[in-house]
Amino acid sequence: MSAKLIKGTEIREEILEEITSEVAKIKEEHGVVPGLVTILVGENPASISYVTLKIKTAHRVGFTEIQDTQPIDIPEADLLALIEKYNNDDTINGILVQLPLPDHIDEKKILNTIDPDKDVDGFHPVNVGRLMIGGNEVKFPPCTPFGIQEMIVRAGVETSGAEVVVVGRSNIVGKPIANMMLQKGDGANSTVTIVHTRTKNMEEHCKRADILIVAAGVPNLVKPEWIKPGACVIDVGVNRVGEKPSAKDPNRMVAVLRGDVDFDAAKEIAGYITPVPGGVGPMTITMLMLNTLKALKYKLGIM
Ligand code: GUN
After folding, report:
1. Does residue 96 have its Cβ closer than 6 Å to ligand 1?
2. Between 72 and which of 42, 172, 215, 302 could a Cys-Cys bridge form, CB atoms 3.0 to 4.6 Å apart?
């Protein structure tokens, strides 16, 4: 059997189109559009490229967008004051502070200062708590797990009663996606197991999974014999395993990326599988846009 590919690149286009038309409708009916600010401290090249893509995507869907770049040595108090400024700015619905931050800044303090109703990353403890409670309490699911759940639903995979096994227990992927899949409601109602580095028989747990979500950061960790035939395999890993000349410009080197799953072998056993790249990756920024749109809709009382 050859698995059906769940392509994040295609689902992204569908969702961004939906957001664009909703933004146009809200603009017509309410005279406002969502506003997103991204705050970048320093010049980390990976962070610059993420933030540039976030801003470009926000522009594409019709948001107002601000890219606020600050020097690497900005005092913590100044960064806190900047966040307060955007907390009090009525035109801004979403505030995103790009991580990681320099060592002299307390990341936790920064994230906890963002107004939870503008925390479109879903990292503030209030939003983590809302996610844990579930149902109508949930405002901003963190973007990567939100994207994973959306991919599973749009692929038409049954989640109710499904055995979901999550590999990895990070705060930004493993813990939230496990929590989301066990909630009551559409796209959830699953029976969930989390496995991690101290789990004794990881392979045996994975073999039971109808939906296997792997976010371990270890290239090719999941072997084909760990996969139940027909299972839905979501590979969150983005591991740089080398470099190769770019297809567009052979004089420029680009990263060779591998997921956490042995894709070539796994696709012969799984029923559904996400590729790397082009799978979960494109969903994160897409769901950031959806969270920012939701932030405005909550404010307008239309959500
Ligand atoms: N750095 C890498 N990924 C992310 C993300 O999703 N949000 C923020 N704020 N920083 C990041």
Report:
1. yes
2. 42
Q: Which domain holds residue 98?
A: 30-119
* pLDDT computed for residue 1 by the predictor: 61
Residue 127 lies in a domain: no
Convert the pLDDT of each residue in 89-113 to its tens digit.
999 999 999 999 999 999 999 999 9
258 shares its domain with 176: yes
pTM (global) more than 0.85? yes
Q: Backbone phi, then psi, for 101, in 5-degree steps?
A: -100, 160
Report the atom number in ligand 1 closest to the C-alpha of 144: 6
Atom nearest to 284 CA in ligand 1? 6
Q: Dump pLDDT digits (tens) for 148-166.
A: 999 999 999 999 999 999 9
- Please work out whether the CB of residue 287 comes within 6 Å of at least one atom of ligand 1: no
CATH code for position 36: 3.40.50.10860
Nearest to 298 by CA among 134, 119, 62: 119
Beta carbons within 10 angstroms of residue 175's beta carbon: 20
54 is annotated as an active-site residue: yes
The verdict on 151 and 280 lying in the same domain is yes
Look up 210 and say whether it is catalytic.
Answer: no
Dist. CA 119–CA 302, nearest whole Å: 18
